[in-house]
């Protein structure tokens, strides 16, 4: 299996890359932060670390520094994959990088326009550019899989305002990208799925809560829903399950969360649980006072 995880530096992208590696895949791990140079995110995680984790898990990790807003760099990346592998079986569009660009609960007219448009470029244009160049290679063989990583399923997001107009627009758009690509891939035997993790215990989120993976439950003292959080491996196992399912076309065009796929395929998070934070939030919004332990 040959996979490209666009946006594999950290968080969900890293989790997906590693779990694809555990399934035996060769994974091209792209992003903008290397050991020599950081992106505007200015975080320490690197694509080299991700690639090493992929190899350690049993696959072959290949780090490639790519700015997915630059069509020439993406084109060169796909040409390299074609030259080295002759095929592409899985494309994961997980590029984001907008964490420092928004403020919550601020109307659009008070938002910084340049930052808002940058968020749209990072969260949507990167996915379009990558698909434009990668899909001709992916459809060369039937059965290709595209996973569009977002935040919140279509059904969850549609009736809710995600607290920032630009953020709301990006995450709904990515769901629609999967739906539209599913339509275009169908004649070629391909599948496209929108996937959202739940409350993700990414490197940045652990820092935000002042906890580590060892004592993460302490974060629930500040935010109850954090008790239903999940590791990046959970979404990674969801993608690995899709990638190794010969009947994955039944998911094409759908927008799903990692917990839904966990129930379908029988996998768990690293602690053996199956977190379902979206159901927890929906029940809380509905006026219930749920016990987080009932949603793991």
Automatic annotation (TrEMBL):
Gene3D superfamilies: NAD(P)-binding Rossmann-like Domain. InterPro entries: NAD(P)-bd_dom_sf (IPR036291), SDR_fam (IPR002347). PANTHER family: DEHYDROGENASE/REDUCTASE SDR FAMILY MEMBER 1 (PTHR44147), DEHYDROGENASE_REDUCTASE SDR FAMILY MEMBER 1 (PTHR44147:SF2). This is SDR family oxidoreductase. It comes from Nonomuraea ferruginea.
